[in-house]
Amino acid sequence: MREDGKLDYLEMPGGDLPAVKAFYGQAFGWSFVDYGPGYAAFDEGLDGGFYAIPAGAAPPPLPVLYARDLDAMLATVLAAGAVITKPIFDFPGGRRFHFRDPAGNELAIWSEP
After folding, report:
1. Partners of 107 in the beta sheet?
2. What is the spatial distance between Cα 53 and Cα 57, in angstroms, rounded to a whole number?
């Protein structure tokens, strides 16, 4: 069961997605679901996905938390001092927003539609 504020998903830069998918498939037996040419999702203990990026521009991984009520969670993180880096937006499977914590880490919070 999903719970508010628990780590639910991890997004990582993938660069050359076919090469990354081939590596994780060969090394660990992972399989992927493609959501367009720029995103490949996995479910290997912790759900997550790789996203395509230009070579040499690898940002850090993006931890994604869950919220049953995304609007209420947005208000909660703002009240706690978060800085919103991407306001609420729709994506295949739900809605989410991104924020920075006081240490400068970027995280996202998502909810089902």
Report:
1. 99
2. 7
Give tens-digit pLDDT for 49-84: 988 877 777 678 899 989 999 999 999 989 988 999
- The CATH code of the domain at 7-111 is 3.10.180.10
- End-to-end CA gap in the chain: 17
What's the half-sphere exposure (Cβ side, CA atoms, 13 Å) at 7? 9
* Domain ranges across the chain: 7-111
Q: Percent of the chain, pLDDT > 70?
A: 97
Helices (H), the chain: 17-28, 70-80
* pTM for the whole structure: 0.74
82 Cβ contact partners less than 8 Å away, ≥ 6 residues apart = 99, 100, 101
